[in-house]
Design brief:
Elements (H helix, E strand, L loop, with lengths): L5 H8 L124 H4 L15 E2 L13 E2 L1
Antiparallel strand pairs: 1-2
Length: 174
Amino acid sequence: MTEFSRIEIYMLLNSVKPLWLSEIDLSEADLRGANLVGAVLTNADLHKTQMSGCNLSNASMGGANLQDCKLIGADLRRVNLRGADLRRADLREANLQEADLTDANLSDTNLLDANLGAVDLTNANLTNANLTGAAAADHLILRAKSTFGTVMPDGSVIDITQGPGDGSGGTPNA
């Protein structure tokens, strides 16, 4: 994939919106505070990208690689993250209200104090994710296919994996 210089990234981010950046490689780029409302970043490589404070509301990011990405305080309302890889991402205080995280990999992700109101976590992998203080209903969290080791919003830890289709999510261990 193509590498962009800092000036090329700056020019790209300041072009007419919404941006169509499917399959782009912006890995390890510094995009802090960028306005990416409605951007199409389907299957984009954004691993290790600094995106804290970004506005990605209504963006389409299905299948994107966001491993080790910093999204602290990012606006991710109504974003499509179906099948995205968010392993080890830092989503502290991010707003994910009404986001679609169906089939997303959120293992080892930090969602401390994140807003997960009306989020779709169907078949998501939440293994060892930290949801401490997150605004999320348990029934939404328990739609995930794996919650082993997940720290729930109340601080309790899920100590067994969810059975296939049982919706139990495991047994909280306070």
